[in-house]
Amino acid sequence: MTEPGPFQIAIPDSVLGDLARRLAVARLPPPQSVPDGEPGDPAGEDDEVIDRIAGLLAYWRDGYDWRAQERRMNAVPQFRATVDGVGLHFLRVPGSGPDPMPLLLCNGWPSSMVEYLGVLSLLTDPAAHGDDPADSFTVVVPALPGYGFSDRCLDRRPNRRWIADLFHLLMVEQLGYERYVAHGDDIGGGVISRIGLRNPPGLLAVQTASPISPYLSPADKLTAAEQSFVDASQRWDHDAGAYDHVQATRPRTLSLALNDSPAGLAAWILEKWLTWSDPATRDRLSPDELLTNVMIYWLTQTIGSSMRLYVPATAPPLGPGEAITAPASVLIPHEPHLPGSQRRTARPERGQLQLPSARAPPRQDATARSRDTSRPRSGQQRLPGLHYAESVSAGILVEASADAM
After folding, report:
1. Is residue 364 part of a domain?
2. In a domain, 33, yes or no
3. 332 and 377 Cβ atoms separated by less than 8 Å
4. Torsion-angle region of residue 352: left (phi > 0), alpha (psi -120 to 50) or beta?
């Protein structure tokens, strides 16, 4: 292992010039006068989404300022460290309270550290927002191997358990934290769940928005409610899960196109943000935020390496007796057509974070009847004693409490 060293993003002008030339000659398909699907059909494509993608491509070409976004990201403390032979890029923002709780945040696909920029101040400096400084966190946001400015790891076969071990080593051995809590969504949720499976010393609690399917023996029978949930999940996979199947079966073929075409890459990524996000808060996703997230994939040429984590072998199922034993909670975001998204005790926004307090230890096992290789599907347990703060710029609601964990 190597000691963490400071890192700054510095993209050469030649790379930006090449991107500008590609965007200038991008060839968009002619518009259709008749949509393929019926209005409201979850299996169909939304004309408004297609039009918004075209508008974002035009802004990317004519108005987007990468250097301004680069300065914004470089204002956040960034580092790189080698953990078990893998170079990991991460944000580390110290909390300002008397005893900040270390918090590991792990995003999924097609996301990046950009998704968390708008909530860092809320988590690390609650006093600046009129809240209790005792609720502050020291936030660590590593990029998954194969994502962003972490190593692509093309000479390895990455999987979620291996990444979970890397991130635990980063928190405990590299950064020296004796205790920490962790939250993850999508693939990041699968990684955090697997830290909870190991339940190593120092881990206090996990929260996932992508629960792992439990082991079911041939003798196990689903209840009517569970079978209904499974049926709804299968409908979602059929209607909206084509991307998952392609990335799981032909990731290298797809990456040949997306790694070469900025318009194609942006369309593939932006469609997910514009259809998975909560319609009530979707307008808060600014063009700069959406395109900066795309830029992370384009500039680092990691779309191909990021899709490798959709291969089924990277997320093997649980075996008999395997379960998350760390204190855990499960939530789902409010996404259109998502199974179970209307059956919850409260209305979470996309990317919501809930961490349990010491006064209200979590009682829910994060091993649930769903797959973590697609979008999250499970119920949410709300816990008392939580701190609330809203990030309008990021379009998400954060709920968190360090309390005295």
Report:
1. yes
2. no
3. yes
4. beta
pLDDT band at 390 (very low <50, low <70, confident <90, very high): very low
Does residue 29 lie within any of the structural domains? no
Write the single-letter amino acid at 344: R
pLDDT confidence bin for 361, thresholds 50/70/90: very low
pLDDT per position as a tens digit, 328-353:
998 877 766 666 554 332 222 223 33
Q: Would you say residue 193 has pLDDT above 60?
A: yes
DSSP tally for the chain: helices H, then strands E:
12, 10
Helix axes 262-276, 47-62, angle to 10 degrees: 130
CATH code at 365?
A: 3.40.50.1820
| Residue 165 CA from chain centroid, whole number | 18
Pairing of strands 78-83, 180-184: unpaired
**Is it true that the peptide bond before 110 is cis, omega within 30 degrees of 0?**
yes
What is the SS3 assignment for 304? helix
Does 3 fall in a domain?
A: yes
Structure tokens belonging to residue 98: 């008397």
* Domains in the chain, number: 1
**What whole-number distance in Å separates Cα of residue 298 and Cα of residue 378?**
32
Q: pTM here?
A: 0.84
* Residue 173: DSSP 8-state: I
- φ, ψ at 44 (rounded to 5°): -95, 170
Domain that holds residue 123: 1-20+42-213+223-405
**Would you list the DSSP string of 376-400?**
--------SS-EEEEETTTTEEEEE
Q: Report DSSP state, residue 46.
A: P
Buried/exposed 34-65: b ≥16 CB within 10 Å, e otherwise: eeeeeeeeeeeebeebbebbeebbeebbeebe
Question: Are 394 and 387 spatial neighbours (Cβ–Cβ below 8 Å)?
Answer: no
HSE-CB of 134 using CA atoms within 13 angstroms: 5
Alpha helices in 177-302 (DSSP H): 187-198, 224-240, 242-249, 251-258, 262-276, 287-300
pLDDT in tens, 250-280: 999 999 999 999 999 999 999 999 998 888 8
Size (the chain), residues: 405
Cβ distance 214 to 317 under 8 Å?
A: no
Residue 130 φ/ψ region, left for φ over 0, alpha for ψ in the -120 to 50 degree band, beta for the rest: left
